[in-house]
Amino acid sequence: MQTNHQIKYNCTMDMTKLKLFFYSFLFFQLSLNAQTYGDSLSTRGHENNNKFKQLKDKLATPNSYRTASGAPGRDYYQQKVDYDMDIELDDQNQKLYGEETITYTNNSPDALSYLWLQLDQNIRKKDAPALEKNGEGAEPILRVETFVSTYVKEPFDGGFNIEWVKDTNGDPLEHTINMTMMRVDLPRPLKSGEQFEFSIKWWYNINNHVENRARSGFEYFPKDGNRAFVIAQFFPRLAVYNDVEGWQNHQFWGNGEFALNFGDYSVRLTVPSDHVVEATGQLQNPKDVLSRQEYKRYREAQTSFDQPVMIVTQTEAEEREKNFSQKKSTWEFKATNVRDFAFASSRKFIWEMMAVKLGQKNVMAVSLYPKEGNPLWEEYSTKAVVQTLKTYSHHTFDYPYPKAVSVHAKNQGMEYPMICWNYGRPEEDGSYSDSTKFGMISVIIHEIGHNFFPMIVNSDERQWGWMDEGLDTFVQYLTEQDFGKKHPESIENMENYPSRRGDPKKIIKYMSGDQSFLAPIMSNPENVYQLGPNAYGKPATALNILRETVMGKKLFDHAFKTYAQRWMFKHPTPADFFRTMEDASAVDLDWFWRGWFYTTDFVDIGVKEVNQFFVSDEPSSEVKQMLENYGMTQADLPPVVFTMVEDNEDFKSEYKAGNPTDHSKELKSYMDEKTESGLKLDIPKNFYEITFEKPGGLVMPIIVDYTYADGTKERVRYPAQVWRKNDNEVKKVVATNKEILSIEVDPDQETADVDPTNNSWPKTQQMSEFDQFKANLKN
Amino acid sequence: MTHVLTGLLCGIVGILSTHNFYVSTTSIRFVPQDKILQITVQVFLDDFEAALQQDQNETIKLNSKLPQDDIDRITEDYFRENLLFMEHNDTLNFSFLGKVYKNDVVVVYMEMKLDSNPQQFSIKNTILFDLLSDQKNIIHLKLGSKRKSFLAVTSKSEFQIPEDFFNFQN
After folding, report:
1. CA A692, CA A730: separation in Å to the nearest integer?
2. Binning pLDDT at 50, 70 and 90, where does residue A640 land?
């Protein structure tokens, strides 16, 4: 295939330099002739608004903390916060009591005169401002329960009761609570490199997480009178202090999740002695809290690589449900280098685990669920955990923690280091729909996957929801597809695992929606209309497109892994991600980040028109006119080839017959010369000029299938850069011996093109989804 | 499943609960040559199931493995009650074509014939409002390249369509 310009410029080779300049100018003019160029003095100037402009105006200036390559800089630092805690769960009265000692290490170069702590439970205080964050007004129709809880009932009073804050001498520390943040004033500024140790005593009322769809709380089972606790955000936690935000003390309003420090945890959990407990970290005293038989199974599980070992069976769990022990047991957990701590506790839990080999290490894949989760949970939970650890480790780094636990909680999916809560409950008779089954497998993959983003690659969730949700949803998609291949019986007669997000087609509805309900990915999670597609679906799809269509798997996978490994156990920002992906691949992606992440533009590329053109010895009237304008005639030109489209008024039908050399003496003599010198060149017979239009704001590569008369098909990919000088339409030439029968843009639907009706030439009548449904009905 | 979503606590949802939050999409496309409105509604399966259970029959399950006749009838009733197209306050009739399950959403198809340029045409969308006080229903209207969108919430669920939107001359 050759382009128009190559053919033209080849003819100017033996000219003098001056002439060369002149002719190239002339050819430039001729080739511009087709486009409308024109301007008047009244047109205002403009800044550089090219879609390929580098992102320097959007990204923070690189510095010694964060480099221009996207890696941590030589002065990069992060604070370390260690916790030593005694926690007691009062099941009967649904209260949680805690005493914690915090050791704060100031690795920053700055002296700190106060520390900020997060009091997330305060969002459940009865007077919390978060309860009034929405402005949609009165509701004309309300369920009775809603009406009563809104206007009649005394609201639930959650929130921390802070009993005291003391230093190591037992002296009280000044502290001020502002909504979900608490400032502790230090007796004297904490200098760079120094440590400060202090303690807090607190308690709070535990909420029912099913009633208000919270991330932490209990579910009550009226049939047997038990509760299953999934407890998180349950202790005052240090806010992050860093080079980007200073203190990240943006209040907790409910949607923007957490920004947390790495540290070591030593936690003693006191619960009723018939509860089964799982938590972040390694169990230190299994012999004390497990029966002899449970302990034996627990040991056995550590080397069971083929299938899970039941530590507590369903029969045993059902037996436990009946007694409500008044005795207490204390479970001890230790965790190194984690950013948070969470736990689950109940009499109802069935408990199973198996070992997974990752690199040189064994990791325990664990599931914990009440009998209400069966038969779904015993079938799929641990399998989903194992697949997640494998696929994510392959794309990032070997999972560094000793275990990963999937706990069944009704209605919610939520992630913490080494442990997460997942929905997916069968009907009471044990039956379940496909949507429940795949919903459950997908949420387990998603929440276990969060161990990688943001538990280890520790981005700031409060500010950037997409950095963990989007990256996680992207690897979730890859894991789901692997899961379907590894467990074909789970997807029965389907070709692939039915992923809800990740496939470009799935984001079209969102991206083509009304602009007034869309926000760019680079928005705070509190301020977007549709958090699901905004922070999960769109960034996951964008990364999928980057991998499959823009960069290719090899370059993408290496760059993505580089990002994960550079920022493992550190705090990355969006710029660190954007920069690393380019730095490790040598693919300029600023146009991609700018369009997909900083705007609400969508993809729409189509074929506008197709013109066949032919070679001749005679110039068309336009060319003659152009020559006349420069005071020239055809004789002044070097050897040239003229081209003409069929509907040009000077076109003669004979141009269509035979070979191009039959109609151009210059071309023939040039070709003969080459043939004599031993070069074998073949001149294509057909020349097509294809105009591609781009009604959509996003620039993307143009992926085209050309179908020829001989039944063959050719896939051509024009780089996104083809749009850099004209953002509306571009023309490409195809020179071929075969006749083009049809053209299709984005044939595999890999770019999230929102309007397929302009994707083919000749235009084919595309059936809308609606018409397809109607047609199926008739059949 | 019963959601007891307290209106005021609605902001504090798990970030990945069964789905992130409560939105349905109603797409209405006008096909001038046939003078037909094609109406497609996408709603989350679990919420819709809960609404039908509350509204009609506690034992109903939206499961593709079960016979669909009853489910289709109840679904149709639900939509006739909660998606209204009105001209001068008279409710216009639409034909209910059916529904499909797609992963965790249900897609419902309806169509409506319009004989002349409708006057004082309005749409009222209260899908799931009786179940979830923070449900939001997005409505997209499309006629050729003309588009208009509305966001229905419990406090405002009815919208007047501009007179010039359906132009039968086109």
Report:
1. 5
2. confident
Interface test with A, best of B1, B3, B5, B9 (most A CBs within 10 A): B9
As a whole number of angstroms, the distance between CA A554 and CA A547 comes to 8
Helices (H), A494-552: 508-511, 531, 538-545
Q: Is the dihedral of CA A668, A670, A672, A678 positive or negative?
A: negative
- At residue A448, the 3 state secondary structure works out as helix
- A224-241: pLDDT as tens digits: 999 999 999 999 999 999
Instruction: Answer yes or no: do A423 and B17 touch at CB < 8 A.
Output: yes
Q: What is the dihedral of CA A611, A613, A618, A622, to 10 degrees?
A: 20
Task: Let me know: does A310 contact A234? Beta carbons within 8 Å.
Answer: no
User: Nearest CB to A517: which of B6, B12, B149?
Assistant: B149
Angle among Cα A504, A571, A84 to the nearest 5 degrees reads 125
| Contacts A155 to B, Cβ<8 Å | 6, 8
Query: What secondary structure does DSSP assign to A420-438, as a single string?
Result: EEE-----TTS---HHHHH
- Report CA torsion sign: A667, A668, A670, A675: positive
Residues 6 or more apart in contact with residue A638 via CB below 8 angstroms: A11, A12, A14, A15, A19, A23
Nearest to A134 among B11, B18, B111 (CB): B11
Say if residues B83 and B127 touch (Cβ distance below 8 Å).
yes
In chain A, which residues have their Cβ closer than 8 Å to the Cβ of B154? 136, 139-142
CB-based contact, B95 to chain A, within 8 Å = no
Q: What confidence tens digit (pLDDT) does each residue in A740-768 have? A: 999 999 999 999 999 998 999 998 777 78
> Out of A124, A136, A253, whose CB is closest to B153?
A136
- Amino acid present at A60: A
Dmax (CA) of chain A: 109
Tokens of A237: 């936690």
A713 touches A705 (CB < 8 A): yes
Q: Which of A171, A188, A179 is nearest to A114 (CA)?
A: A188
DSSP letter at A766? Answer: P
**Nearest-neighbour CA in chain A from B15: distance (Å):** 6
Taking Cα atoms as reference points, which of A210, A227, A215, A208 lies closest to residue A271? A227
**Rounded to a whole number, what is the distance in Å from the CA of A309 to chain B's nearest CA?**
29
- The angle subtended at Cα A304 by Cα A424 and Cα A271, nearest 5°, is 55
Q: What are the tens digits of pLDDT across the range A518-565?
A: 999 999 988 888 888 899 999 999 999 999 999 999 999 999 999 999
Q: Which of the four pLDDT bands, split at 50, 70 and 90, describes residue A204?
A: very high
Q: How many CB pairs under 8 A join A and B?
A: 165
Residue contact A433–B5, C-beta within 8 A: no
Q: A231 - beta bridge partners?
A: A343
pTM of the model: 0.85
CA of A318: how far to CAs of A210, A274, A321, B93, B154, in Å? 22, 12, 5, 54, 43
Cβ atoms A482, A391 nearer than 8 A: yes
Average pLDDT over residues A314-340: 97
CA distance A646 to A74: 65
The sign one gets for the Cα dihedral A34, A35, A41, A45 is negative
How close, in Å, is residue A529 to chain B by CA atoms? 10
Q: Is B19 an 8 Å CB contact of chain A?
A: yes
- pLDDT given for residue B169 in this prediction: 53
CA atoms within 13 A on the CB side of A385: 30
